[in-house]
Write the structure tokens for this entry.
Amino acid sequence: MATTETLNSAGNKAPGVGSFAASNSQGRESCGTSILWVVADIGTVLLAAVIGMRVLIGFRIHTELHQGVLFISTSLGTMAGLLAWFIFTLVLISRSYQLYNPFRLTSVLHEQRLTVQACFTSGLLLTGAIYLFHATGISRILVMATIGATTVMLCVRRVVYRTLMYRRFEKGLETRNILIVGTGRVGQALRHHLDSIRHLGYTFKGFVQVPGVDVDNPPNKIEVLGALENVYDIARKYFIDEVFFATPCERGVIKRMVEQARNAGVDIRVVPDLYDGLAWNSPIEYVGQFPTIPLHRGEVPEISLFLKRGLDILLSSLIILFASPIFLALAIIIKLDSPGPVLYISDRIGKKGRVFRCFKFRTMVMNADKLKAQLQHMNERDGVLFKVTDDPRVTRLGRFLRKYSLDEIPQFFNVLIGDMSLVGPRPPIASEVKQYDLTHLRRLDVTPGITGLWQVEARQDPSFDSYISLDTAYIENWSIWLDLKILIRTVGVVLDGTGS
């Protein structure tokens, strides 16, 4: 595949591949998630200090300023240093308590207890520092108010975050698809345990059978998706995020699976009782009440993804807000131009194969989907794609809307609710996905977008291979800068009127 100009200018990224020993130590929080939580904790402490100052000792500020107690006996530099010390110790202790680990691995009460314990321990270290530095001019009410407000706000923030994520899990959003290797007693117990604790955010997809170890006719045989040698083909087909080894396998097999996991982007966990000595230096992580050892955890750019989602929300909100008069005008014109609804709503396949409803302005006659079969002989694209230059189903206004991509404006609502992104592979329909090879499913690993690399590089290229290769190149080289470059180039493409 030729390297495109956009990819060259954005820079290429290749995931690092470490040793098996290094992957053993990856049973920690990911770096990106850790940084986000640290930033959130720092912000919480600063807000708590402001609240403590304003609400709890506000009525004393005038007196203490007059007496020179608050800011004269104790300098602003000393106060800032003590606050920084409190933040530093809180972050350090929270990390040691694994409060920056994925929250799904701990219970609510356990997390709350550790949060309170971390705040109080940091508070004790703060009071000790005040004593050592003889900062007796600092109001004790301010210190206690800051510690108390920090504790309450951290606990509330974590509970609110969990509640929001649990609701998303119930809708099938942001869950992790799992595959269990082993159909025996341990595998069955793990499966039922995960099913019984839905708030963990795991979705069981099926079992993988190990010949010679598992029974030939396991219970729920219909859930057996294949054998161990095909585990990563199965993982690709069912968009698996984690593979749990719940049956004993040879050490060499596990090592080989970990190496393959790096290329497949799949995490691996084993049940420790079945693998004594395999990863003795790795911490045990409890998935619910089930002990597991993570052997491999893929690197996910959480900070970049967080920024991408923030950019999606910001830009889509602004466009919807300022372009609403255009929305209304187009809706009226579409209604007057031809009979039928203003919007064309179709089921599309999104990230990990999830079906969502995609919005577009209607550009065709009402029975366009039924007429498609009659036009197959006129298809100008190869493979899965379908396009006819002078499509008789397109209305007069529809040709104009398509030329300047105005029919896709309603998809900014899809972006706002999270079904789509501004930049990404275009969302296919189910009939197209049914014709995909396993390698083509790679384009469903990410959230689909309104525009993408194919739209700005080869929109008129009839080749399905080019379509797939450009989407794959985007996924493998993705960065925020690449998204921005594609968005800028999209403006030019739209103004040139090169749409279909």
User: Anything to note?
Assistant: Residues 116 and 151 are 6 Å apart (CA to CA). The radius of gyration is 28 Å. Residues 303-496 form one domain.
